[in-house]
Amino acid sequence: MRTTAYTHTEAGGSRNAIDKPLSGKNVMSAASDWSRWPLGTRFRVVNTGDVFQIDDYGSALIGTATIDLYKTNRLAMSKWGVRAVDIDILAWGSKEESLKVLAPRKNNRRVRQMILALSKEDRPDFRQF
Questions:
Q1: Is 107 part of any domain?
Q2: Pairing mode, if any, of strands 66-70 and 51-56?
Q3: What is the domain extent for residue 8?
Q4: How would you list the strands of the sheet with 51-56, edge to edge?
Q5: Per-residue pLDDT tens for 57-115?
Q6: Is residue 97 part of a domain?
Q7: pLDDT at residue 21 greater than cutoff 80
Q8: pTM of this prediction?
Q9: 108 belongs to a structural domain
Q10: How many domains does the chain have?
Q11: Which residues of 10-37 are buried (b: 16+ CB within 10 A; e: fewer)?
Q12: Is residue 105 one of the residues assigned to a domain?
């Protein structure tokens, strides 16, 4: 799994896509293309044991197989860089909840891409990714 890192001092700010503070404790925030890993997907990074939950998305992630891991500061973000890691899915998120959050944002081209991918009835099961 390709991972990158982000922090709250970047352009996106300190709140996630569901308007809650980004979490850097216990279950940490992560961002992805919700058509691959829907809102609420919980996973563990195997080599660190850290547990993350998808509660955010980023336009640069849409259409990619990358998960962006929240780090609490720029130093930790820089140290993480780009890494290929193994992850264990602990719980799958909700396609329906993802669509509910995305619907009011459908005027954004990148969000429309996720909505279209999530809405396709004949698409493969996202759990395959």
A1: yes
A2: unpaired
A3: 2-123
A4: 83-84, 2-6, 66-70, 27-31, 51-56, 42-45, 87-91
A5: 988 999 999 999 999 999 999 999 999 999 999 999 999 999 999 999 999 999 999 99
A6: yes
A7: yes
A8: 0.90
A9: yes
A10: 1
A11: eebeeebbeeeebbeeeebbbbbbbbbb
A12: yes
